[in-house]
Amino acid sequence: MIDTDILLRAYRLMCTAKAMAGTYEDNRPICKYVHSTSRGHEAIQLATAFHLLPCDYVSPYYRDESLLLGLGFSPYELMLQLLAKGNDIFTGGREYYSHPNYRGADKPNIIHQSSATGMQAIPTTGIAQGIKYLEKINSPLLNKTDINNTGIATGQLPTANCPLPIVICSLGDASVTEGEVSESFQFAALHQLPIIYLVQDNGWGISVTSEEARTCNANEMVKGF
Description:
Rossmann fold, two-stranded antiparallel sheet
């Protein structure tokens, strides 16, 4: 049974994401910007965000607005990036919307990434490879999260209260047709890396249906690995 407080928090953030999308659409004629909503993806994105710890890494894709809200970023902070404002906390208004990067003690690490779809797969897989290597040599550089005080702990072995980091690479379903994504899947499976590929399948890929762009879904594709 999921705790009621978690369900209420998720519902409030779903409503927040819906209200933000509505506000953007209502004002599109006044202020030009590029925005893709997380509509229909809210539950999986929030569930993912709620599981992540400050020592973890996540690479969102351009529809991951609810994931960012779930990590604790405010609507105001996300709007600053959407409108390319100079006090945008991610890149000072220099990056495409929902392409954040962040390094702080209070949230998972988010690396900078290209606006081309699927391009985050290889560098994010590389992070997972680095984590596995640091774990293998028991390096003090391997950051873990002390759940008791939610801070970053270094130089100690993982425990129930101080787990090892994981990596999340979030993708749209159409991006799995790209070579970069296939290469990442193969490499992660071959080396058994601590990474989760979160593939969100809504049956569309930019402007074509899944039936027009691919022969199978991501789950069917990776079974061969």
